[in-house]
Amino acid sequence: MEQANKRNALISLIISIAGAIAGLFGVTAFNQYVLMNLPLAARLVSVIVTYWLIAIIPIIIMFVSKDRLLDYGFEKDKIGIQLAIGVGLGIVMSVILTLIPHIAGFGSYVDSGIRYEYLWKFIYEFVYCILAVGAVEEFVFRGLIYTKAKQIIQKDWFAAVISSVLFGFFHILRGNAVQMIMTALMGALFCLFRVRIKRCSTLSLIIAHGVYDALITVWASLLL
């Protein structure tokens, strides 16, 4: 029975990462060929909705496996504390990894290349980064993939390595080898938060991820 469970977890992991990559190609194709033909309001909504293409196969895997969100690091209790932890982690990470490098003259190494002038665009950036990027990537990588990897070998370090390496590989499709390594290290940091910080749930990681990503554009727009 144990070997069967491990085999099922491995199959689920492989299908999930393949599905996430296929979803990423779908998102890329939509943004390249369809997005700019839509009116502004439709673009704002569709960018968030289509990012969830990445999570469709993993969500199907969750239902087929009869897993619950609780199995993927989500918690029902003390939601306010979970949210506060996420916001705090996102801000601390942003100050250390983005703001300080900008102030020290290394902003080009942590710059997203996006600049905004209007307040509504900054607000939308937070909404997009949390509800799309943060929610999807944390559910897939620190949620499902982390959990399935731990089911294969009952060690947090193994789950952290597998989910972080796959997280980095996932991002090489949109960047280069250096970005892949940095993203893998970022994934490992999120895994560390999940394991070591009490009440740091997958919801906390979603908020932290989204806040951190959104603040990259904020600092770049304000400081350059």
Distance between the termini: 58 Å
Structural class: mainly alpha
Largest sheet, in brief, is: none
**Count, helices:** 8
Q: What's the total count of β strands?
A: 0
Helix-strand string: HHHHHHHH
Low-confidence stretches: none
Radius of gyration from the alpha-carbon trace, in angstroms? 18 Å
Number of domains: 1
In which range does the helix fraction lie? over 70%
- Please state the overall shape, judged from the principal axes of the Cα atoms: globular
Average pLDDT for all residues: 93
Strand content: under 5%
Characterization of this structure:
The protein has helices at residues 2-33, 40-51, 56-64, 79-103, 119-152, 156-172, 177-196, 202-223. It has 224 residues and is mainly α. The chain has one domain. The radius of gyration is 18 Å and the shape is globular. The mean pLDDT is 93.
In terms of topology, how is this protein built?
Blueprint (H helix, E strand, L loop, with lengths): L1 H32 L6 H12 L4 H9 L14 H25 L15 H34 L3 H17 L4 H20 L5 H22 L1
